[in-house]
Amino acid sequence: MRILVLGSGAREHAIILALAAESAGHELFAAPGNAGIGADATLVTTLNPDDPAAVTLFANDERIDLVVIGPEAPLVAGVADALRERGIPVFGPSRAAAQLEGSKAFAKRIMDAAGVPTGRATRAQTRDEVAAALDAYGAPHVVKADGLAAGKGVVVTDDREAALAHADRYLGDGAVLVEEFLSGPEVSLFFVSDGDTVRALSPAQDFKRALDGDAGPNTGGMGAYSPLPWLAERFGGEQAFVELVTREVAEPVIRQLDAEGTPFIGLLYAGLILTDAGVKVIEFNARFGDPETQVVLPRLRTPLSALLMAAASGTLEDQPAPEFSDDVAVTVVLASEGYPESPVTGRALGGLDAAAATDGVHLAHAATRAADGGLVATGGRVLNVVAVADTFGAARDRAYHALSHITLEGAHYRRDIAARVAE
Ligand code: AMP
Ligand code: GLY
């Protein structure tokens, strides 16, 4: 197949690596991609992934069989709508269905209508409404911007003044949500959907805070691992857990969206908290998670292209459940100095070949550009070291050994990714 992947991060690199690993002779294109992706796909740097007309024209001219949308921006811009209108198979929901991620209020309404378990939430439009909701739920306080805020729209704090100040930042642009605090481990579970049928992938957990011990500010994600062996204790195993969430969360949401005339074709990402009162949804995303994708796809045994194409063409029912290897995967994100507040970019990277030569290790690039015969970092999250092994201890050893080869002035990464499951 000729497959175009939109986006430029490590998630998109992971998707391209998984497609290439099928050894099915796919011709892979990425727009705009990055220097690392350029080693595995043809980069189309002149194509704006957020431009529906331009993407459709390119896909048509280049006889693309399948377009895979990585990030949320093209979804919100209506790229999937434009492709679908032209009859080009696309993995990614319409602008209307992508509101499940883009609008937290929309997501809450769908969950209410579908009877999906989630925390209580109040939509507030004034400072007084925020204050009243904070007091009604009590501490810890959870305040969220209602739109896309690139992972920075949420504050969880015991400090009432800080919660109010966070709300003030977003109230000018619209409403905020004040939520009940949910306590428990978090799980990211991905579902491939053709609008009707869903197929679950293997669960993962990501590390959102910048520093070891879950300290420091929220980030786009500093690492991840899959699978989650500790699910066995509470749910009797991954299979039972996945079936529960499929039944109680994914299927009702997909049915509800379909009934409203906005079928969801693409990747439904359920962000879950396992509370003492059961599994609850904290958020949905309308795309693969980053960095979880980097640990889920290397374990996928089913050809990724078959799953994505079946979703895009409405034939997922004919596909068997995706299969995963028993190996485990760990990814650690290398971040630029100053990330997430004010990352320093433009610095030279070294040691990548030695890192990638580590047994069981590969690199997924997030923000790299070719320059002066080498590579420079162009963003906050620079690359992911991904390690696969038969135990978490071995995978961690491999990942951190590979990282020891990489040089980038001022760079930082967490040392405790998957440390607890390795014990
Ligand atoms: P979100 O952008 O909704 O995924 O929120 C980012 C992070 O904030 C989540 O991964 C949780 O760690 C935390 N969070 C969000 N909502 C809640 C909540 N209602 N209770 C506890 N933690 C939350
Ligand atoms: N890993 C969090 C996200 O992709 O939104």
Any descriptors?
32% helix; Rossmann fold; binds adenosine monophosphate; globular; alpha+beta; five-stranded antiparallel sheet; D-amino Acid Aminotransferase, Chain A, domain 1; 4 domains; Dna Ligase, domain 1; binds glycine
State the separation between the terminal residues, measured CA to CA. Answer: 43 Å
Using the alpha-carbon principal axes, give the shape: globular
**Main beta sheet strand tally, sense and closure:** 5 strands, parallel
Q: What is the name of the CATH superfamily of the largest domain?
A: ATP-grasp fold, B domain
CATH topology descriptor of the largest domain: D-amino Acid Aminotransferase, Chain A, domain 1
Report the average pLDDT across residues: 96
* Small molecules held by this entry: adenosine monophosphate, glycine
Helix content: 25-40%
Which structural class matches the secondary elements?
alpha+beta
Q: Mind telling me the C-alpha Rg?
A: 21 Å
Strand order within the widest sheet?
Answer: 3-2-1-4-5
Number of β-strand runs: 23
As for the number of domains, it is 4
- Unreliable parts: none
| Annotated CATH architecture of the largest domain | 2-Layer Sandwich
CATH class wording of the largest domain: Alpha Beta
| Number of alpha- plus pi-helical segments | 15
Strand content: 25-35%
Structural description of this entry:
The chain has 423 residues and is of the alpha+beta class. It has four domains: 2-92, Rossmann fold, CATH 3.40.50; 121-179, 2-Layer Sandwich (Dna Ligase, domain 1); 186-318, 2-Layer Sandwich (D-amino Acid Aminotransferase, Chain A, domain 1); 328-422, Phosphoribosylglycinamide synthetase, C-terminal domain (Glycinamide Ribonucleotide Synthetase, Chain A, domain 4). It is 32% helix and 27% strand. It has helices spanning 10-21, 52-61, 72-76, 79-85, 99-102, 104-114, 127-137, 160-171, 231-235, 238-259, 292-296, 304-312, 352-356, 392-405, 419-422, and strands at 2-7, 27-32, 42-43, 66-69, 90-91, 121-124, 141-145, 154-157, 176-179, 186-194, 198-200, 205-206, 209-211, 215-218, 223-226, 265-275, 278-285, 328-335, 348-349, 361-365, 368-371, 374-377, 381-389. The strands form six sheets. The protein has a five-stranded parallel beta sheet with strand order 3-2-1-4-5. A five-stranded antiparallel beta sheet has the order 12-15-18-23-20. α6 (104-114) packs across α10 and α7 packs antiparallel against α8. The protein is globular and about 60 Å long. The relative contact order is 0.14. The model has no long low-confidence stretch (mean pLDDT 96). It binds adenosine monophosphate and glycine. Adenosine monophosphate binds next to β7, β8 and β17. Residues 206, 221, 285, 289-290, 292 line the site of glycine.
